[in-house]
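Sample 1 of the test manifest.
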Amino acid sequence: MKNRKILLSENEIPEHWYNIVADMPNKPLPPLHPGTREPIGPEALAPLFPMELIKQEVSAEKYVEIPDQVRDIYKMWRSTPLFRAYNLEKALDTPAKIYYKYEGVSPSGSHKPNTAVAQAYYNKQEGVKRITTETGAGQWGSALSFACNHFDIECEVYMVKISYHHKPYRKLMMNTWGAQVYASPTDLTEAGRKVLADDPDSPGSLGIAISEAVERAATDEHTKYSLGSVLNHVLLHQTVVGQEAVKQMEMAGDMPDIVIAPFGGGSNFAGLTFPFLRLNLEEGKNIRCIASEPASCPKLTRGVFRYDFGDTVGMTPLLPMYTLGHNFVPAPIHAGGLRYHGAGVIVSQLLKDKLIEARAHDNLEVFEAGVTFAKAEGIIPAPEANHGIATAIQEALKCKEEGVSRTILFNMCGHGHFDMKAYEDYFAGKLTKHELSTADIEASLAELDTPVPE
Amino acid sequence: MKNRKILLSENEIPEHWYNIVADMPNKPLPPLHPGTREPIGPEALAPLFPMELIKQEVSAEKYVEIPDQVRDIYKMWRSTPLFRAYNLEKALDTPAKIYYKYEGVSPSGSHKPNTAVAQAYYNKQEGVKRITTETGAGQWGSALSFACNHFDIECEVYMVKISYHHKPYRKLMMNTWGAQVYASPTDLTEAGRKVLADDPDSPGSLGIAISEAVERAATDEHTKYSLGSVLNHVLLHQTVVGQEAVKQMEMAGDMPDIVIAPFGGGSNFAGLTFPFLRLNLEEGKNIRCIASEPASCPKLTRGVFRYDFGDTVGMTPLLPMYTLGHNFVPAPIHAGGLRYHGAGVIVSQLLKDKLIEARAHDNLEVFEAGVTFAKAEGIIPAPEANHGIATAIQEALKCKEEGVSRTILFNMCGHGHFDMKAYEDYFAGKLTKHELSTADIEASLAELDTPVPE
């Protein structure tokens, strides 16, 4: 009988995070001050983040050592299993070999704790008493709540009000780990009160929740802010995923031709692919890395490379990114974690340099892929994860058409136990194809008055 | 750094199930015909179960080989990890060493697929086209849906109507794996129609759902029925859990003084403890095995050893069991999997012979234990699992009081991702202590006119 899983011992959890900046042929361009539009240095981030994370944000060192205390908490669920998807291969009747790295075994059910634990640790080291953040679908808020609980740091989560009411179990998960969860907009912040004064029934948005979380951190010396994707240090922490996967593929006596991961801000994608990209950049391998994004929020496939704001209000530094414009409002798909207008700086540069690829999938297509996967492999995936599965299935079917075998690896980044409402809507035929017109994208981009990178 | 988990390779998944009957000093008494009250043979079960499972039900062979196809599906999640609960030990400040076996990594999130897969396999071997079952909280229905999907057998689940409406996500999980789920009582069966004629708004009950599922199987030659606990063959299949745990404890260089598991009908408890009881019976070891039951359904601690029916209606054979009487209606606690009036035959005999112990916990106490566990170890447990955790915490605190270290192992039989409503009620102060009066138990037992075993 063939083995389905490739497991590593706890001693094989990586000892370093891999910083791809060291190997990039073109380094990321600098962030610009939102007002002066001049390049800014790391000190501009000091009110929001602890110094060690800021150092990582701007580091060009190839490897960053993972502190023992972080690795010790990683051991609560890492290393994560690498599965050979024999059942899915059979269901698709494909000559392709399909593997997936399963990050849903973490306590909060996704890859997010990989960075949440690291961020909580560095905050604790620098005496921070409270961390604020925003959350939409709730994956990130859960992960940070879990992490803060372990370092005895207060955690304050601003959860988009409509999600707060739609996803009470995500909120309860955060409460169970001791976090305070507020339905944003709140009357606890200037930003929230302003929104409520204009519209007492505001359903909230990720942009508003970010403003609230940032304001709390900026106005209290014992409080810092934390972000779950996009930034360089967040992508860095996720590279434990790909480093384990490289080792596990070697143990399987195989190496992927194609590595696939869902794409929101970039941390999911970076986590799995960067250690494989290292093999391309360092050893001349030719592994294709594909980012899977929703057709309703196609920054990589239909956006432009441009300086843009990270938030809706325009308070953050300007970052060089693939973007749909910071005012772009994606359709309310269930994969809340992928509804972000822009891509992280590193991933944007890699795409510009054609070192990675991107592909967009329609909402119906991704749920069809998710159900096919669930029936074959047993695990019910998160809506975000379904995007990577959709690309993997496309590539596997292409192998079948062409009569060739390729080795495909994707990031099964989380389970869908808290997203069953999405499946209910899918089965009930309530999900519709979102046609995003070019005119709508152009209109959003036309509002940008920010610099075009050289 | 210390290791938190002890893992086995897929090749170390047990090759046999362990049948404790072979080692029991007093063998279980025979079942009686519900009408004649004379001992019945295995042929009486033939309309409902495939022959191979009936053979296992009455087998006295010490080991039953696990078919390769079953082990192959086990590999989708087995072996399951054994955790050393360092964080919980620290939180309790106890000298005890605490371990837990985590069965929540299965696709449906509990230990239930261990028997569901085996049962689906044997049904498939004998050409069965459809399997019916009942489910309350939904753990069992999910597991059987998953298993039937893999053997391409239709699965029909009669879900207690009130649960069907309260737990839509459990139902959706079953649908995702292709099962038909009906809100019981239905108009598809004689039994259901009769109930609906009397009370069109009936919320259903496990007893009614069993009647519907059994009727469907009994009246269609291609359809069989499946049960998720209580019966000997179900307990047998769960022994993969304890066999793995024995090996993992040996790898840890340790052996438990106390082994603990939640108790509903007995399969959860049997799964973990029987392979340790084998060490007592065969090698003279003295490992205490404790069954943890809800104070609102205390068949082991406050019931009587008596012949009783397995169902409410009185259609099943009479079994010698610890029971509260088949008409006993437990309070509607969230741990739906433990709301059963009787204990499996084997476990009942073991308790009568004082080879195992039992302990009851109040509903509030178990949720307090669950939250303590979730904060320390990260995983949010199912309400059923919280009962075992409550006993483990009691024993660990006793070690602290006495200033001695003992090694405690418990079955963390499933996660609570589909039970967050229970935690919501707990946090909101809606759970109350259920005081079950002796008069109520006596009244229920007084209705029994069934034989008292010699």
